[in-house]
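Protein modeling request. Please complete all fields; requests missing the sequence field cannot be processed.
Requester role: graduate student
Desired output: 3D structure, token encoding
Chains: 1
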Amino acid sequence: MTRYRGVVVFLHWLVALLVIVSLVVGKLWLAPMANAEPFKLTLLGGHMLSGILVLLLMIWRVAARWRGPDPAPANAGQPLLDFAARAAHAGLYLLIFGMSLTGIALSQSVGLPAIVFGGEGALPASFEQFQLKSVHEMLSGLLIALIVLHFAAAIWHQVVRKDDVMARMRFR
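Delivered output (172 residues):
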């Protein structure tokens, strides 16, 4: 087997899209926007729903991977690079789960579900007082770095090594 199964490919690209959109919304729109801005509630609602959807899809993805079969791990021709690839993939999974779980924990500690979806109360003046915000933000920076590395490695495989490793995640 040289390709991942269709469900794994579908979940890879759907999660990738949702994660990138969530990171863009969080970093470029939510973070700089004042909590008093009315549109922030709408963006927060979408961001929260997206995070929960990512978590559910990642659980499905892990279950689909466990059910196998998967192709053999890609080989970069160097044991250190092969180890780095496995570590980076594990890091992507851990960071995505970490982002979802810290987001849920942060929203619960602030009372966001009732504020955003129930109209009960108002956002705090700032999220800076909540330590989980710093953790969520730090994880987002690490996740962005690892996504860039993952993308660069895929391009390296395609352009430099010309080993067509990207075909493993293409739709058939």
